[in-house]
Amino acid sequence: MADQGIKLAVVGAHLCGQPLNSQLTERAAKFIAQTTTAKCYRLYALPNTTPPKPGLVRSAGGAAIEVEVWELDEAAFGSFVAAVPSPLVIGTLELENGESVKGFLCEGYAVEGAREITRFGGWRAYLESLNSKA
Q1: Quick check: 106 and 88 in contact, CB under 8 A?
Q2: Which phi and psi angles does 79 have, rounded to 5°?
Q3: Quick one: pLDDT at residue 1?
Q4: I want to staple 77 with a disulfide (CB 3.0 to 4.6 A). Which of 6, 22, 33, 102 is the partner?
């Protein structure tokens, strides 16, 4: 029986086409699906991050947020998590279908004063809104 990989939900700079996606692909991560979280999250544009990154926080009165689910083997998952910078953390996210997977979350202190972008439904839509204003 083959070892099953660890599913990881990404929400921002690691999405396909975004600047940190190579951190997944260079670890031979397998793209599983584009989906959304359960309707219990809020998304924020974090200030002073390079490249720009969002922060996802579980919250009452939240919304469904676009994510991609990737699968990594244990060694790749471990090396990936070791490189995640504060204030981001890897925790457990609930997807729209009720499945729980590991994924990006943000420490609460980091969103104080940050721009809430939940209404966009995801990082890509937020970035598109910025580009349409330019």
Answers
A1: yes
A2: -70, -35
A3: 39
A4: 6
- Give the amino acid at 105: L
Residues of the chain with pLDDT under 70: 1-3, 134
- What sign for the dihedral angle of Cα 12, 101, 120, 55? negative
Residues 6+ apart with CB under 8 A from 125: 66
- The domain segmentation of the chain, as residue ranges, is 6-133
End-to-end CA distance of the chain: 52
Under DSSP, the state recorded for 111 is: G
Phi, psi for residue 132 in degrees, rounded to 5: -75, -20
Cβ atoms within 10 Å of 133's Cβ, excluding its own? 6
Give the angle subtended at the CA of 57 by the CAs of 52 and 60, to the nearest 5°. 145
d(CA 54, CA 119): 13
Residue type, 114: A
CATH of domain 6-133: 3.10.490.10
pLDDT at 132: 82
Instruction: Let me know how many helices (H) and strands (E) the chain has, helices first.
Output: 3, 8
Task: Give the per-residue pLDDT at 131.
Answer: 86
Amino acid letter, residue 81: V
